[in-house]
Amino acid sequence: MAALDMLSPESLSPLSGSDLIREANHRIANHLSMIVGMVQIQASALSKGPDVLSRTDVHGILQDMAGKILSVSHLHRKLADAPHVTELDLAGYLVESCSALLTSLGLNQRAGIAYRLSGRCMVSPDKAQTLALIANEIVLNAVKYAHPTEIPAQITIGCGRDAHGKMVLEIYDDGVGLPEDFDEKKDGGVGFRLIRGLTKQIGAALKIESSSLGLSFRLTLAQ
Length: 223
Hints:
- By secondary structure, this protein is α+β, with helices and mostly antiparallel strands.
- The chain has one domain: Heat Shock Protein 90 (2-Layer Sandwich), CATH 3.30.565.
- Helices cover 48% and strands 18% of the residues.
- It is built from five helices and seven strands, in the order ααβαββαββαββ.
- A hairpin with a 5-residue loop joins β4 and β5.
- α1 runs antiparallel to α2, α2 packs antiparallel against α4 and α4 packs antiparallel against α5.
- It is globular, with a radius of gyration of 18 Å.
């Protein structure tokens, strides 16, 4: 999937109207390419599945895709207000993105999110987009699978630095965890495939831990 086209620090002089339009169009094209890539992953998974899907399954698939489109469009609106930005506050962006996700999909009664965020989480817009997509995917998975009894999932999102100064994003829930024989490197559905693929795209290390008390994802970004 294409990365967002970023302005270099050397190009921070004011752009002409035509340059701004060209830049906006380029970003829109890249955002649409990201959405196409995610739709193709979903289509590939469906081609290997059953011939007939239930109404509930179709609703879930469309809701998942709506969440991805919301995440991409949220970043585009943010960048449209600041076309020269080269870094975003990941902490604040995650709060905005995840809140918009739950509200727009009507999931506020299905999950509660707590945030443990540091003010040292500055990243480029393309990494912010990828990390937000990962976070949204994890949140949606928690809403659907954390509690089979469908009680609201309690999700915590943390962002900060480890002892080596590397940025760490951690997301965990209070659900039932994964099956005991689950292989985090290859098992799981479309959601896990996207999480692994997006993590690899930004060169981050992914660690998944599961128990009967919940499931956690820890992403450590390279320096």
